[in-house]
TrEMBL record:
Protein name (Swiss-Prot/TrEMBL): S-protein homolog
Transmembrane segments: 15-33
Stored InterPro entries: Self-incomp_S1
Keyword Signal found: yes
Subcellular location: Secreted
Family listed: Belongs to the plant self-incompatibility (S1) protein family.
Domain of life the protein comes from: Eukaryota
Amino acid sequence: MNKMSLGTNCKGHQGLWPVILIVICSLHIINISPVEARCWFTKGYEIRIHNDMILEPFSNVKFHCASKDHIIGYHNLSWSNSSHYFLWDFCDSFWGNILYFCRFWWGNKQVALEVFNRKIAKELVGDNYIVYYAIMSRDVEREHLDSLGPLEVFPWQ
């Protein structure tokens, strides 16, 4: 029986292993986010929705989000347990025209808004690809990772 080494059992492919290793190491060195790693020709983004009703700990917030091609669905967020946040990620389209919208309900109040669009994408700079939405008893606030306060405020209706 002839024992073969790892490098010789794939004739013609020995030169490919160093290239694969260099690509994997490069991804770790430049610190690409998981969502961006799967977005080949476009930028990857993440939407995070938090129930920040600290003064209303047993309040449930209901919401429904979708884009033209992707339904996120209906969800409940309760501040009092581990389900106080929800997130999803996606790759932008080649044309940069992805639009996600959400409708939020809290008791008899509601608000509908675009949680991601071209304008919001342009505001994200550097390695920041995350958009935060804080659900509060007074309003819904859009924030970014490095923002010092709300970038946009949506009062309950």
